[in-house]
Amino acid sequence: MKKKLINLLFVLPIVVLFALFFLLPMGLLAMRSFGGEEGSFTFGNYTSIITNARYFKALWNSLWLSVTVTLATLVISGVIAFFLARREFKGKNLYMTLITFPVSLPGVVVGFMIIILFGTTGVIPMITRMIFGKGYGTFAYTITGIFFAYLYFSIPKTVMTIYGSVVEFDVRLEEAARTVGANEQQAIFRVVIPTLAPVFISASALAFCTNMSAFGTAFTLANQFEIIPILMYTEYTNNFNISVASAMAIFIGVVCVVLNMVARVLLERE
Amino acid sequence: MKHYNIMGKILKILVYALIVATTLFLIVPIIFTILGSFSAYWGKTMFSRGLTLQWYEYVFYYYGHTIGLTLEITCATVLINVLLGSMTAYRLTMTPNRNSKWIKLLEEILTLPAAIPGIAIGLALAQAYPDLRRSGVLILIGHVIFTFPLMFRAVTGALRAKDFKSIDECASTLGAGPLRKFFLVIMPAIRVSVLSGAVNTFMLSLGEFNITFFLYTPFIMTLPVGMYESYASLRIEVGSAFTTLFLAFAIPLTYLMNRLNRTKTK
């Protein structure tokens, strides 16, 4: 009896904490998102994301920004991960620590890194001024800035995911391809990449979800540029449109949970 | 065949160019942030007016309180989650019916905060408990919920890697109760995983912005929120000094984390 009680005590605190401060608030948020005027039930807050021109613009911006960043990340990270997995060189450990370090930076700091690179006194304008006499590349506070900022935090994470799976890849398959006459590039494109496709898809699913929901980075750079996370914040704080803000939060939440599940299933099958 | 060789060479050059460009893109801004924090005036050139420490004095004077508060919240988050995460993971792994659907469901819920965007959790907490905002306790709770999956997964992974069930039963046969078993047998055996989970939790909590931004008040402000404010309204030199202070925590912690991961895989 006493033993059972102590066993219960091991799990009970976290169950209570999650019930009160996770499930209940998320439930209330979901209820809020279906609330119309005078407490009626409505899908209006969700449909307004598509019917309201300003909301739809933000959704559109978020979607194509996330898609382009994800695709660019996949190509760049894929190349770097293959390079790291297949080449031995001095200082490789140090190099990997360096390029994966940005993973631990908060979103706001990533935004600041872009200001350092592409701001009015940034590194790129400074260098171009030295060479051409005129500063180029001051786009930190535009959509291009946000694009590079998202790349900045997406690349290290994706490199880590792909690197792990390339290292574990069964080299015998590739060797078999080489024996029957394929060169290195053919072997990579015809054998390695198709086999690792699930890893690439799950890495992109995760990158896409991070890009859709990133807030701090975009907020640092362009809090007037409308994407869904920023619009959600403005609707909540400036316009007191809490039901619409809740619907947007639930929408991003569901997209991310589903993509995370897809990524996990694919990685587990691998 | 010759045609193919030229193509291959061009491809190789492109690959190397891409790697060099990406590396510079990731590393250069960090270096310039640190350099810029010592610049007296960062205008068209960086050190035209020499070096200074005045921006650090400025940050300590106006934002010193954010550093103390952040360390309090972060340390409390780590302590709570080391305890709760290990306890929960231990109990759920040792349960005889650990593959039952109820346990599975509980595990799913407990790891869910890792998948849900911070802004959704932040908005949900801000709406549900507006009265708890002023004391700052809501920020702590938000951080605990948000980082729990990390610790829980780290410990569950460590407990499943070896046959801890028989070790646990063995300790029972020798007369150890649940508390004794947990603190004197299990925890020492998985200490490297717990420590690496703790360092990870520390990093995540230290830099947390998205949840905190919905929960802070001007009197209860964390370091990332303070950094955001300095980026938005102050000189770039101040932002650089503030960021460099953050890096002074983040760089040693990353180093420690890499060391721990290497010991774990050994």
Put the structure in a nutshell.
The complex is a heterodimer of chains A (270) and B (266). Chain A has 270 residues and is mostly helical.
Task: Describe the fold and architecture.
The complex is a heterodimer of chains A (270) and B (266). Chain A is mainly α and 270 residues long. Chain A has helices at residues 2-33, 44-51, 53-86, 92-100, 107-118, 123-132, 143-168, 171-179, 184-195, 197-213, 216-221, 228-237, 242-269. Chain A has a domain at 42-101 and 156-269: MetI-like fold, CATH 1.10.3720.10. Chain A is globular, with a radius of gyration of 23 Å. Chain B is 77% helix and 0% strand. Chain B is globular. The two termini of chain B are 46 Å apart.
Structural key phrases:
heterodimer; A: 270 residues; mainly alpha; MetI-like fold; 13 helices; 0% strand; B: 266 residues; globular
Strand content of chain A: under 5%
The tally of structural domains of chain B comes to: 1
Determine Rg of chain B (CA atoms, Å). 24 Å
CATH topology of the domain at 42-101 and 156-269 in chain A: MetI-like fold
- Give the overall shape of chain A, derived from the CA principal axes: globular
Mean pLDDT of chain B, to the nearest integer, reads 87
List the helices and strands and how they pair.
The complex is a heterodimer of chains A (270) and B (266).
Chain A: H1 2-33, H2 44-51, H3 53-86, H4 92-100, H5 107-118, H6 123-132, H7 143-168, H8 171-179, H9 184-195, H10 197-213, H11 216-221, H12 228-237, H13 242-269
Helix pairs in contact in A: 1-13, 2-3, 2-13, 3-7, 3-10, 5-7, 7-10, 8-9, 10-13, 12-13
Chain B: H1 2-36, H2 54-94, H3 101-111, H4 118-128, H5 137-161, H6 164-173, H7 178-189, H8 191-206, H9 212-215, H10 223-233, H11 236-265
